[in-house]
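Collaborator request, handled under Task 6.
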Amino acid sequence: MFKSHSKALAFLMLLAILFSACTKIDTTSLGSGLIPGVDNINTFDTTLDIIAHTIDDVTACDSGISRKDLHAVGYISNNSQFGSSKAEMYFGLKPVSYPFSFPTIDSLNNEIDSVVLVLKYSYSDGDTLVPQKFKVYELAKALKPDSLYSTCQPMPLALFDLLGEKEFIPARLKDSIHALNEDDAYQLRIPLKKELGEFFINNAKQFTTDSAFNANFGGFGIVPDESFGGEALNYFDLTAA
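Structure tokens returned to the collaborator:
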């Protein structure tokens, strides 16, 4: 008699467990005010607005860029995913050895025909069909090879003296260029004012050492013209400039 009651009790407990396992899944209390109810027949669709914020990672400013790395210049005005971005480039071009002899001015006309800053182009990130405009200034203070500079800190420029500027379409930088005694591609050629070339030639005796070079010319700063627009960052190899 006791065994039969035990078997019946065990059967009822098992049946209760099975029924409890088949009950309707209840929604959690988390987000119950945002998610509409479900009647097990009709589905629903909803859209939630998410607000995201970006922060500056100051540790990334200490990563450093060497002269052998590719250097970026450009401007992205309003990307739907990444917002706006801007990159400037600061560098100095020095002779391989000193004293350096500059070419003499043509004795027939006693003037320089042109001065061009040639940058070796590598690739671009962004919309390469949108035109951009770069401006070239002299650095207000020469870069020191034994000093460290933050990649997030803009360098002071002599903005009162524009050395040159160039409008271009990044996608066309891969095109072949047929310049005087030169056939090449992947170049950005920025015309500089002739007075800069005349300054170097007329003051050649002041550039006999590296320290004298730094004292008389700080170097170049290339910045994108934000008012002109742009949607790409462009990368250049300074070792081939």
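The cover message to the collaborator said: "The chain is about 15% helix and 30% strand. The first strand starts at residue 70 and ends at 79. Please let us know whether this matches your experimental observations."
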